[in-house]
Amino acid sequence: MEAFIDYNNIYNYINLVLQSLNIDKKTSESCARSLSQASLQGIDSHGIRLLPHYVESILEGRIFVKSDIKVNSVTPCIAKINGNHNFAYGSGMTAINKAIEMAEVYGVGIVSLYNSNHMGTLSHYALEVANKDMIGVVMTSTTPKMSTPNGKKAFFGTNPLCITAPMLSEEPFCFDAATTSFTGNKVKFFKNNNKLLPLGVAKDKNGKDTTDATLAYYLTGIGEYKGFGLAMAIDIFSSFLANMPFADEVSSMYDNPLSQKRYLGHFFMALNIKPFTDVSVFKENLQNLSDKIRNSTKVDDSMPIYVPGDKEKQTKKQRLISGVPIDLTLQNQFFDIAKKLNISNHFLKIK
Q: Which of 162, 195, 220 is the last residue of a domain?
């Protein structure tokens, strides 16, 4: 049975869980904010449902609780960061803040993060850039799950890309999307909730389309070769520059033992708008374009026209009132975590 929990309560619960595992305060707050915000925005595949996996990854040793994050400035506007298998929510924020810092002085800041692990929604990091009146770009390699056109072997994962930019009178523009029609976590969400997948988002072991989440083995790239090509390009930015395993060598998030490190690479960029144009003009132009698109002639007047990020903003408004949805399986997992770690579960009050 699905229930609803207040956003602040779920944020506080996640923060409490992670700090009880000796995750430092800044990192635990970053993760708690990312997971609860993702669920608040309707990105349930990358929201609070990931907490049990992270807890086990910490307990089993995949994620180091405390290790040095080493920043190496290669040039005034390029840096490489060794995440040293620390929680990516901490090393990722170190990376994006370093990119912002360099961009404020030199116009652009580019950071390659290596020896990392799952980083959640890319918008969590890229929005930090947009909130500084800059353009943010974040990419990452992921578990190989994408169907190779006419092939029976997966070489690339969902390999998402996020681009953010500031707007005049609303939260920033945010395009955050996988290069597959569905993410692996979203398929798991459908599987756990006994839902049929839409046709065309997944294939079985034989490369045939399936709507059965239990049979889904490959994910379908957006536009087939176009999504495949984009995923390969993102691997170049994320894995190649970080000198991390790439393509079919990228480790699995779920199938490998949780005692094994992941060795993921991520790419971060902050681009300062000021050297190009007046920031206020940029923000006004992007705002006007978005409004123009939304107000353009509709095929079906009962349906809105969205620009990237609109659905998430809309869902966020709704869920701030109704609460964050949590199914019975996840409720029980959360209560089990509280019991296992001997912490209070009073935050898990159903609205």
A: 220
